Amino acid sequence: MSKRCIPIALALFLTPPLISCVATTEPRFVVDDQSYQSQGKNERINFIVLHYTAEDEPTSLELLTTKNVSAHYLIPSTDNNKIYHLVPDNERAWHAGSGGFAGRTVLNDTSIGIEIVNDGIQFPYRGSLKSQNLAYHPTEHFVDFKEIQVRKIAQLVTDLTKRYDITPKNIIGHSDMAPSRKIDPGAKFPWERLYKEYGIGAWYDEVDKQQFMNQQAFEQQSIVDIKQALRDYGYKINNIEEWDKPSRNVIYAFQLHFRPDNLNAKMDLETYAILRALNKKYKNKY
Question: What predicted TM-score, i.e. pTM, was given to this entire model?
Fold first, then answer.
């Protein structure tokens, strides 16, 4: 080969084939979401879980926006028209943690978390379980929610309930799903008022409660039967034939929600009657 031909051959070797520069002509396929729709489906969001922050507003905002904990919404304590939307509804917030309700054990995946700026337990009582040898905080230890917060909660939860078709039983407190870890939103959260004034959440009918206020019938119920009634409503509870500490935690959580004025963590007649009244009203309604 002549010297003159070497550069030409080298150039041909270094030049990439033209075929590699030609754009592919694969057709774009159409994703058709109009012609057919499956009936076997439901909303990803099935629960609303309510919390208190146990911190002031600046600290609550810092924790919920810069740490490994989050919530979809924050109800501030300041007297303004703000409700902070911190995590998009279609994304997963880290607010619920371990626990369970209504047969679900990973509620972060299926819930909207709403944090409310509230101290939770009044500062003088925060160490009282140890210092006063108490098993549980009584009602008077908890902090009231502000009126404007109640109205914001009512508006937000009403909107979310309609948007995602959330059933009354699935509007719960953090304590309902994690009774051995959490006590928020606490005894001062206005569950009864939200139900009666705004139609939010679940509440028993007084006539049904009175029907079950029968001491003799109550005494005939075994612990296993009553635990099953708690399970039927949605609470996660063990099958031990005694009211051990984890079981009493569930009773306390139930009372925080449905009998906050008389917290004793004991399955007494009134607590039992409320439970039976709730199961009568909301049987199989998840």
Answer: 0.87
